[in-house]
Amino acid sequence: MNSRLSNASIAKLPGATAIPRYDRGAVTPGIVHLGVGAFHRAHQAAYVDACLADGEADWGIVGVSLRSPDTRDALAPQDGLYTLAVRDSAGEQLEVIGSILSLLVAPEDPGAVLAALTDPRIRIVTLTITEKAYLRAADGTLDEAHPDIVHDLANPGSPRTAHGFLTEALVRRRAAGAPPFTVLCCDNLPANGATLHKLLVEFAKLRDARAGAGDQPLAGYVADQVAFPSSMVDRIVPATTDSDRARVAQELGVEDAWPVMTEPFRQWVIEDRFPAGRPAWEKFGVTMVEDVGPFEDMKLRLLNGAHSGIAYLGLLSGHATVDRAFADPAIRRFVDALWAEAIRTLPDDAGLDTTAYTAELAERFSNTALAHRTAQIANDGSQKLPQRIVASALARQEAGLLPEHLSLVVAAWIAACAARGSSLPQGHFTDPLDAALSDLFGRNLPTAEMTATVFDLAGFANGHAERQRLIEFVATHLVHVKQGGPKLALAALGIGNEPPRLAE
To answer: Of 20, 62, 366, 422, whose Cβ has the fewest other Cβ atoms within 10 Å?
Structure first.
């Protein structure tokens, strides 16, 4: 099979495959997306594709990879087209997405990325760059000592980071008299818009201090003139395998170098603050709100928190995928108990239907067609657990409640990290703290001391009055995991052959 998915070949695809219902040649760019990976292509790009089909032809996407050329190399020969494979137990529906007009690779040509960002047609910049790419110090502020931040301050015309690109583009737009774009963060950060706003203001202050801001400091412009609405995104997107590529190619009759696998469910909640305009996303299921906070907390603590628990306990129990781990009766009961703990930390006056939400999550976690790898979810735990697990645990302790199941997730993460190279393959998943953790695990410290050191390295609960007590909960669980694996740790919580002993 030599033919490739492209503008020239889409008309020949099987009738059951959905294809773009608009003239791609008439579409102009309105959005630059930083971090054009699989999640963006299954989520934001699919929503924009629906808007383009509805006649909003000025919202095409310029995709930017901040690190690797892999996505560009896969999709450029395909004119930016790719297949979205929506899978559940009933089967698979293929849809070709056409909203990505062009793809850039920042390290190869930062000037081209800045040119795209300063194009006055661009009114929104969206981001899915993962938590670690925000380059925060342990206290949540900008890591001013990070080599890439240091580089971007010294070389504003050839940045490496999202901070450097966004800030330099805003400088150039202001100088050209073009209005600022809206910055829409789509990563799993608490109050992600406000968080990114704060980081960019900090970065701008550093630029002001270096350059001498004069009467028009950049930091004030970023703080006062640029909109940073928060958003909450949700769709499970497992990594694409070679067997996925082969199956999709067989169905299409042409090759697609990088199709994207996903589930039927999708959700996007966005604060409606777009001074320069936006697509009519609400026509296609996006929820536009005044405050995304309650929705974000529900997703982070119930979906993402459970995902992390399933991933680490699943890895330690020998389960390669989410559906297999969730089918383990003990892990299934643990997730119910985890949800019971986390739900008590959510606001009860925000109209959240946690019963329906967790029922839907249980169905999604049971989707055998996705084969969502536990190792994929396990990546970057030190960056993910603060908002997914630690925040809930601290909130419970502040309310006089116990974080018994929440704290086990942190212990399972530590144990899974330590297990790589022994019961788990070396490099089975990765974390920004891998070098420091490897050194720590080699010191054979007592469990309590080792747990406290991990908290220090990751910055978990720094300065919080309940920090030491949470460390003690985690250390107790870690002793159980070391002695008898997840089975003993779960049994200590009353989870085994009998129903779990809930904390409520």
So the answer is: 422
Q: Taking 70 as the threshold, does the pLDDT of residue 111 lie above it? A: yes
The 3-state secondary structure of 336-400 reads HHHHHHHHCCCCCCCCCCHHHHHHHHHHHHCCCCCCCEHHHHHCCHHHHHHHHHHHHHHHHHHCC
Average pLDDT, the chain: 95
Q: Tokens at residue 129, please?
A: 């760059």
Tokens of 434: 């891998």
Domain residue spans of the chain: 10-289, 301-492
Separation between Cα atoms, residue 225 and residue 230, nearest integer Å: 16
Strand partners, 268: 233
CATH number for the region 301-492 comes to 1.10.1040.10
CA atoms within 13 A on the CB side of 337: 27
pLDDT reported for residue 504: 37
Distance CA 424, CA 428 (A): 7
Q: Using CA atoms, how far apart are residues 26 and 141, in angstroms rounded to an integer?
A: 43
User: By C-alpha distance, which of 296, 289, 303, 295 is closest to 353?
Assistant: 295
End-to-end CA distance of the chain: 59
Cα–Cα distances (Å) from 424 to 96, 190, 327, 419, 482, in that order, read 37, 31, 21, 5, 14
Distance (Å) of CA 301 to CA 63, 279, 291, 389: 30, 29, 17, 7
Nearest to 450 by CA among 421, 429, 477, 430: 477
How far is it, in rounded angstroms, from Cα 396 to Cα 392?
A: 6
With beta carbons less than 8 A apart as the criterion, state whether 257 and 75 touch.
yes
| Alpha carbons 117 and 125: distance in angstroms, whole number | 8
- Checking if the pLDDT of 503 tops 50, the result is no
Mean pLDDT within 125-148: 95
Task: Give φ, ψ of 496 to 5 degrees.
Answer: -165, -120
Question: What is the C-alpha separation between 28 and 101, in angstroms, rounded?
Answer: 8
Quick: pLDDT tens for 33-77.
Answer: 999 999 999 999 999 999 999 999 999 999 999 999 999 999 999
For domain 10-289, give the CATH number: 3.40.50.720
Same fold, 10-289 and 301-492: no
Strand 124-127, strand 82-88: pairing: unpaired
